[in-house]
Amino acid sequence: MITGIKENLQKIKETLPENVTLVAVSKTKPNSDIQEAYDAGQRVFGENKIQEMVGKYDALPKDIEWHMIGHLQRNKVKYMAHFVSLIHGVDSFKTLVEINKQAKKHDRIIHCLLQARIAKEDTKFGLPFAEIESILASEELKELENVKITGLMGMATFTDDQAQLQEEFSSLANFFNVHQKKHTDLTTLSMGMSGDYSLAIENGSNMVRIGSSIFGVRNYIA
Ligand SMILES: *Cc1c(COP(=O)(O)O)cnc(C)c1O
Predict the structure, then answer these.
(1) Contacts by 63-72 with C-beta closer than 8 Å and gap 24+?
(2) Which of 93, 106, 196, 216 is a good FRET partner for 140, with 20 to 30 A between their CA atoms?
(3) Which residues belong to any copy of the Alanine racemase N-terminal domain (predicted)?
(4) With a 6 A CB cut-off, is 28 part of the ligand 1 pocket?
């Protein structure tokens, strides 16, 4: 079967500045597709369901960095705590507490991004900026020795309106820049998907999560 995964990856990588990390979003896609991307040199993959990611971790090469990009169910964090490399969608302090607890069992420090709410749609998850500020400033955070907040993540509204996307991305980038000065651990700004990653990068993103432009359209909504 000719999938073109390798070609798609090459095309995208040519357009990415050097400082931008590509997360290949492989949710719903079979292991054979991931292996094809792996053989083309890709090592960072994103999934949005914990159980699906665990199955793929077990089956695929162990030098893959697995990113959890979906909404988190706290009771499932334990299944990925031994291997997950970055959790993008953290949107509550309670979830950080659970990640910390599970990370500790494996003597790991799990890197997390706080998800900011930037979309106008009310279907998107994420924290208002004020809540991110209070988490970053909290004394309780310092007690969570097995989590490290290394950046922020945002999902823009699903729209073609470039002005609106621009506004959403730049609002998060500005917020990130301000807080990066106070919290030196904040190095990652995860924003941009297949449809909007160029604009996200123009606005300062240094991590893009790209699925359908690499693997083709998904057959079902994930
Ligand atoms: C599915 C998904 C993506 C990738 O979307 P594409 O449009 O296929 O590139 C990126 N980020 C998150 C959080 C996702 O759930």
Answers:
(1) 64/34, 64/38, 67/23, 67/209, 69/23, 69/25, 69/27, 69/153, 69/209, 70/27, 71/125
(2) 106
(3) 5-218
(4) no
Ligand 1 touching residue 212 (CB < 6 A): yes
Ligand 1, residues 5, 25, 27, 86: which to mutate, most atoms within 8 A of Cβ?
25
Ligand 1 midpoint to CA 205 (Å): 15
Q: φ and ψ at 160, to 5 degrees? A: -95, -5
Write out pLDDT tens, residues 133-155.
999 999 999 999 999 999 999 99
Q: Which residues pair with 116 in a beta bridge?
A: 127, 154
**Residue appearing with tokens 């490399």:** 85
- DSSP letter at 74 equals G
Nearest CA to ligand 1 atom 7: 194
pLDDT (average), residues 200-209: 98
Residue type present at position 73:
Q
Buried b (16+ CB within 10 A) or exposed e, 135-146: bbeeeebeebeb
